[in-house]
Design brief:
391 residues, alpha+beta, six-stranded mixed beta sheet, four-stranded antiparallel beta sheet, 11 helices, globular, binds alpha-D-galactopyranose
Length: 391
Amino acid sequence: MTETYQALNDQFSAVFGPGPAPAACFAPGRVNLIGEHTDYNGGHVLPCALDMGISVLARPNSVGAVRMYSANLSRGSRKTAPVTGAVHDPQRGWGNYPAGVIRSLENRGFVLPCGVDLFISGSVPNGAGLSSSAALEVSVACALHMLFFPQLTPEEMAFAGQEAENRFIGVQTGIMDQFASAMCRADHALFLKTADMSFTHVPLCLEGCALVLINTNKRHSLASSAYNQRRLECSRALEILRPYTDASALCDISPDQFAASAHHLQEETLLRRARHAVTENARTIEAANDLAKGDLAAFGRLMNASHISLRDDYAVTCPELDVLAEAAWAQPYVLGARMTGGGFGGCTVNLVRSDSVPRFIRETGRIYTEKTGLQAAFYTAAPGPGVHSIS
Ligand code: GLA
């Protein structure tokens, strides 16, 4: 639930001094339904926005600095950054995300004219693979758009967020998370072709089914994980296949072309990484068609196949994610289940018959705790709109 402007503004004034914050916006986290680790391989993705996300209230200040306050971290957490020329500072912690966005905007010619106070309040769990950092980046960009940069488009907010992630934070993420946070529509999935950034909104007609997210409560950390290594493996595989396929990205390669050229990948790891990218892209295109046709059973089978490929070929699941997926697959009222996001922890997404959701939660929670000793957390996804102002 998004807090109302009034409630947030009271907190803003308590932190930064009386008076209203002239800019207030909300950017959602996202769940990716299918199309994992394809966005930096020129492939397709199919995320939808959540109703959980990050709210930012902003007001210009006269202290010549960016002052930031997060209401979520215990007793509130304050950070600062310079108005221009910010560089990554390990002491700044989470404040590097807003600072990175401000720097990326500056690189694009959107230079802050003065200091600014940013009040941040979020409802999307950190480290759960639901894009809390993309939501933070996009909401900060939107607040600055409202204050200073009316020409800044939602697409540019997304690209500035990605650049912050890549150049400031140092994780070579693709564009999916920020683009979903900026561009999704309520009750729709976003079918995005990252090769040329063309997209359509596909209605999410779930007819008697619900999307249930399960958090392993095992924090994922993209920066310390093998994310950047996977990207490198994909570019090495592409270099080897390029002369035989003419592809400019791994997801340009069709499954047939791949079958004819895969023997050139003599290193088993590269073969597996490339096979995931090629097959996952094909699955995502098929899944978007199934969703548009309302064939949820076929959609669910593709979700399952996606998880298996991420587990066996791409090696980005972990025992906790596999336990959750397997527990879901064993239940008759589950149409499909897979890990979502970068992997190595975080969440699974499950397509479950609505009338069986309570039973699904009970059963899966029990099996998970039995097998891992951890408690899972459950959320029913309510696909909401992309970034918007709040009042
Ligand atoms: C993270 C990245 C995205 C994408 C996914 C995997 O969420 O931020 O760009 O690569 O992992 O699909």
